Amino acid sequence: MKVLSCVRGSVRSWRLLVTFISAMFLGSLSAAALPEPGTPAPPLHFTQLLQAPPGAKADWNALRGKVVVLEFWETHCAPCIEEIPHLSKLINELDPAKFQFISVDGLPSEDEEVVQKSLTKRKMLGWVGVDTTGSVFASYGVRVFPTTIIVDGQGRVVAVTRPEILTAADLRAVADGKTVKFAQLPDMSALMKSASSASDAKPLIEFSLIKAPLDAPFGMSYGGCRIDINGMKAKALISFAYQDLPKDRFLPTCVFPEGLYNLHTACKNGEDNDNLIPPFLQIAIAYGLNLRIESKTVAQKAYVLKATEASKKLLTPTASTGGSMWMFSNGKLTLKNRSIDNLANSLEGGLEVPIVNETGIEGKFDVELEFPEKDVEAAKAALLKTLGLELIEAERPIQMLEVSPRAETKKAEEAKPQEPPKK
Q1: Residue 375's domain spans which residues?
Q2: What is the per-residue pLDDT across 108-118, written as a single tens digit (0 to 9) for each?
Q3: What's the domain count of the chain?
Q4: Model confidence, pTM
Q5: Exposed, middle or buried by CB within 10 Å (0-12, 13-18, 19+), for 379?
Q6: Judgement on whether residues 213 and 344 belong to the same structural domain of the protein
Q7: Looking at the domain assignment, is residue 411 inside a domain?
């Protein structure tokens, strides 16, 4: 159990950092520092208060006598969503006469409509405070999602912490007036000031996304922990950020900005892009292009890659000890020192239909296949003859991406005066 706990903490720390980066892309969400334990909790001013009884008020006079758990979140924050079941369990275990949980969404782009849509997908217990002005986030100094602030029955801050460390026993102890030591969340504003004071320090990680001229030539340099892309369309950038997501994995309703873009990323420690870059890249591109990018599972027609007895003879492990590659270009699929998952991705790139790997074959291989683009029957024949693999049509749950403008962009477009129809 100790080992599992350490791993879990490590994953959460990484996700916390990713979510903090997303907050930075939104702009400066707060000018204040996080409140100190023992100080009066700043006022709560919500645009809407959802899931509360009629006439309920979220102010410290009305909440006096209750321990209040404020959960700062946003609808697209994966670590926030992950903690919903844990918070719901606590709410069910605790006396509602002594405790009040309030989830606080304070992003200007997330109005009541956006939050309500999220609540229909994922049930959350407790009250939900919507603050489109961002004043609550600002007064509480919140820069990281999720952040949990516990306030006692006298309206004093008890702790600034993370939701996963909360227990019903600790919260009951707070209600009984006992001292509880919670793990404190670091004040990111102080850390940022400290980091910026080191003028000779080089950036540990860099991202740059700029609009390119319409006639900008395409160019790409990719290796280690550095990526430079010039003259790429928005859809191709998103596909790249999601680890070369095939073009058929976008829902038909997707909306992409026009024009070309230049992208630069680099990190100091030189870790592999596959492990470090993608989550940051996805956030940077989404906010840089002012888009919402959501992953959805859709049941649809696909082709399933299956092994046969012949696969054992025809598939031999790679002899390569150097680099690796996988691609489909001009009717030729090339795989060097890569897995069957990569083979499935390359097939999908050539056929433009979802391919699911159900071979169960592990290891890395070298493969060369030729078949015309989008010709499934030719691909089936080449796979069976060369690798002893079958391609079978079936319905499967497929991970898709839905791309749409962020809420504020939609509102701006709707607010534009409409031209009268031409006669």
Answers
A1: 299-402
A2: 667 788 888 88
A3: 3
A4: 0.48
A5: buried
A6: no
A7: no
